[in-house]
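To the wet lab folks,

You asked to see what we're planning to order before we commit. Fair enough. Below is the target structure as tokens, and below that is the sequence we designed to fit it. If anything looks off to you, flag it before the synthesis order goes out.
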């Protein structure tokens, strides 16, 4: 298994050192800029079927494993001195940079290759994606009885308590 490292992956995207990953040399391990992570760096492992993001936030180390099929597609983003090819996810913090270049032919060729390798669509250039909606916290069955109470049989309603005034008490002994 060959591993590839990107030159300049630790620099801010759009800086003078370009990020170039070869789609035919997967799996690839590289570093990318992440403003929310400690040290502003995250480590990325890019495979044909999954992406693993390693980063630390507030001293807590984490590894996030995302299937490639969960990504929306391969898209372009404009930078000051060129374009950036990205593997776009609905959550912007999970989007992965693939290529930074100012050569339009190189970008078009890489865009096509990455799209074919991951079997994802080529998304329009300037489209912005809204973050994924949060899960609803209200549950439709929240008001139901708890499961252990459903298994219990409810007791029969008691009739009026009997009154035994003036009767003798009988104690049965064997």
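Sequence we intend to order:
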């Amino acid at each position: 298994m060959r591993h590839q490292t990107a030159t300049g992956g630790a620099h801010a995207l759009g800086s003078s050192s370009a990020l170039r990953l070869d789609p035919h040399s997967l799996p690839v391990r590289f570093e990318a800029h992440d403003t929310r992570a400690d040290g502003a760096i995250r480590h990325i492992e890019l495979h044909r079927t999954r992406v693993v993001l390693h980063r630390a936030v507030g001293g807590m180390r984490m590894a996030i494993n995302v299937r490639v099929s969960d990504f929306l597609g391969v898209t372009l983003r404009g930078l000051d001195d060129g374009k950036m090819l990205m593997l776009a996810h609905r959550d912007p913090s999970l989007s992965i940079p693939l290529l930074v270049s100012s050569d339009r032919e190189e970008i078009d060729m890489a865009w096509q290759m990455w799209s074919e390798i991951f079997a994802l669509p080529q998304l329009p250039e300037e489209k912005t994606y809204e973050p994924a909606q949060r899960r609803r916290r209200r549950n439709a069955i929240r008001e139901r009885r708890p499961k252990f109470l459903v298994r219990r049989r409810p007791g029969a309603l008691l009739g009026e308590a009997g009154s035994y005034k003036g009767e003798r008490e009988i104690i049965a002994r064997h």
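Structural context that might help your review: The radius of gyration is 31 Å. DSSP finds two helices and seven strands in the chain.

Thanks,
Computational group
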